[in-house]
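Async update (no meeting this week)

Hi team, since we skipped the sync, here's where things stand on the single-chain job. The sequence we agreed to prioritize is pasted below, unchanged from the tracker. I ran it this morning and attached the output directly underneath so nobody has to dig for it. Comments welcome in thread, and please keep replies under the output.
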Amino acid sequence: MSGLEPPLRRIRVEQRDAVSLITLADPDVGNGLDPYVMEAEIADALRHFGRDRSTRAIVINGDGPSFCVGAHHGSSTGFRYGQDADTNLLERLAHGYAYGVIWEALAETRKPLVAAVRGRCADGGFGIALAADVIIAGRSARFASTDVGRGRSPFSPIATVLASSIGKHRTLRLLWLGDELDASTALACGLVQAVVDDEDCDAVAVTCAAELASRPPVSVSLARHLIGKAVDEMRDYPLTRALAYHTISAATKGT
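Output:
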């Protein structure tokens, strides 16, 4: 039913009345992200449902025990966009090919976005969850950012959204030390809206999305846009800066 071309390889999409689901569907690698296939597919799905008038809310969830463990660049082969095969990273960024478009698509989405998180939710996966408007956490959920400990700068909404949610000092500790937040701690911090049994997580997220979908769609969309601007999620952290920091820190190998 997706209407997405080329066919999807590492995610699934489904529509349940006015709620559309995007499922990260590579549990053998913890639904790990690679920019050329999974991230590109997520971005395409978000933009597709963003244009679909029958979709009034979107849920992102993950197959298997983990929501998303973060980067796993070796988890697939090939490219969703043929242009990526013959261009370097900066050309892809400049011309809007796969590398990094997921973060633009998440920021630009005007439909309410609900994340259903079970198990490990780390690095890029944590960024996807933080880009959502509502996070429903299973009791097994564990949130973490390990990029700094591996000699890299976070490349996602982690820095800005996390800092605006839990404050500068707690965010720095989380990023510097790679601390994990369990579901109950994330609830106490205000990062998640509810903690439920793992087996109920997806259903609760869909119910939450359906409630949002029942509200006046134009007003809901405008409210998401205005609140996003009010908290200034991308302040001083546009995609180009994020990519530059990430690339420079990775090139230095943590020195």
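Quick observations from my side:
The chain has ten helices and nine strands.
The first helix runs from residue 38 to 51.
Reply here if anything looks off.
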